[in-house]
């Protein structure tokens, strides 16, 4: 029984190392997929805030709920793999500064999580409520992009 207990503990400790052992291409693909999911949900909310998409409370709340779920995911390891920056790979938008300032990047990911908190309820009640949520979320996105994303 002790052997099983120690094996489980060893597996749990080694799991974070698995991400670092992955191929750089896989990490970049996962990071880009994560960011694409955020972009899709933000696009729905931004479209509603601008009046480009008809306000639909259920869709707005679902998009905000998805953003909450995405910010609950521990994405920091996707931004911590050396060799995956824009200096290393043409297909990457991550600036090398992310590796130099990983604590700040973590703080900014936490700020996005905080900005998303409560947003499913905040977007309810009409199109006029969506703009403030988009501004709050967009500000958190911009803070990270300004420092750690290669300009397009």
CATH superfamily placement:
Cytochrome c/b562
Main sheet summary: none
Cα shape: elongated
Helix share of residues?
55-70%
Going by helix content, strand content and strand pairing, the class is mainly alpha
Record field, number of beta strands: 0
Under the CATH scheme, which class?
A: Mainly Alpha
Give the CATH topology.
Four Helix Bundle (Hemerythrin (Met), subunit A)
Topology:
Blueprint: H1 2-21, H2 24-50, H3 57-72, H4 97-100, H5 102-116, H6 119-122, H7 130-148
Summarize the structure in words.
The chain has 152 residues and is mainly α. The protein has one domain (2-148): Four Helix Bundle (Hemerythrin (Met), subunit A). The protein has 7 helices and no strands. The chain has helices at residues 2-21, 24-50, 57-72, 97-100, 102-116, 119-122, 130-148. Helix 2 (24-50) runs antiparallel to helix 3, helix 2 runs antiparallel to helix 7 (130-148) and helix 5 (102-116) runs antiparallel to helix 7. The protein is elongated. The chain starts with a helix and ends with a helix. The relative contact order is 0.14.
